[in-house]
Amino acid sequence: MDLGTLKAKIAVSIILAVLLSGCGAQPKYTKYDNPKFDFSMEYPEGWVSDANSNIIGGSDMSFYPASVTRENSFPIITLDFMGDALPPPPDLNYFVQFAKSITKKENILDEKYFNIGNYNAYELVSRQNLKNSGNSSTPIAVTHVVFVKDGKFAYDLRFMVTDSEYEKMKPTIEHVINSIAIS
């Protein structure tokens, strides 16, 4: 084999290795664990995990890319754990009705019941207009998941993303939901 053929084969091998290294590359995730509420889930690696979020007030936990600010607060995952303050007895239907009450019927894109482990869960996907300061608004897609464990704890997870980014973020949303574990 002459030197020119050898160089060509090496070049082709390098190009193939570079091209194939990007094929099938899966995003990486970090595990969030909350032993107090027997809850764990995965969220995208490199995102901030923020207790008592200063991005969206009132959430027990928020997860978002480091680039997110109050002025540009998407995508974001908010997570609320509810225990002692729940109306007795807390049941899934109460939270399903709540999720529906804060969403206009015409904005609901999809809804379904499914299981997280041994627990019934409800998912509502909707489009909403989030009012910004002034008179403008941002169209967002919201995936809202609620479930109750043993009538003691309720879990409220919301994944909010700009409407234009929803399809791109959908695999991430699905991964986060599918990674939820209740012990």
Give a written overview of the molecule.
The chain has a single domain (27-182), classed as Protein Transport Mog1p, Chain A (3-Layer(aba) Sandwich), CATH 3.40.1000. The model is unreliable at 5-23 (pLDDT under 50). The protein contains 3 helices and 10 strands, in the order H-E-E-E-E-E-H-E-E-E-E-H-E. The chain is 24% helix and 42% strand. The strands form 2 sheets. The protein has a 7-stranded antiparallel beta sheet with strand order 3-4-5-9-8-7-6. Strands 1-2-10 form a 3-stranded antiparallel beta sheet. It has helices spanning 3-22, 92-101, 166-179; strands at residues 29-34, 39-44, 47-51, 61-65, 76-82, 108-116, 119-131, 137-149, 153-162, 181-182. The N and C termini lie far apart (62 Å). The chain is α+β, with helices and mostly antiparallel strands.
Topology record:
Layout: H1 3-22, E1 29-34, E2 39-44, E3 47-51, E4 61-65, E5 76-82, H2 92-101, E6 108-116, E7 119-131, E8 137-149, E9 153-162, H3 166-179, E10 181-182
Antiparallel strand pairs: 1-2, 2-10, 3-4, 4-5, 5-9, 6-7, 7-8, 8-9
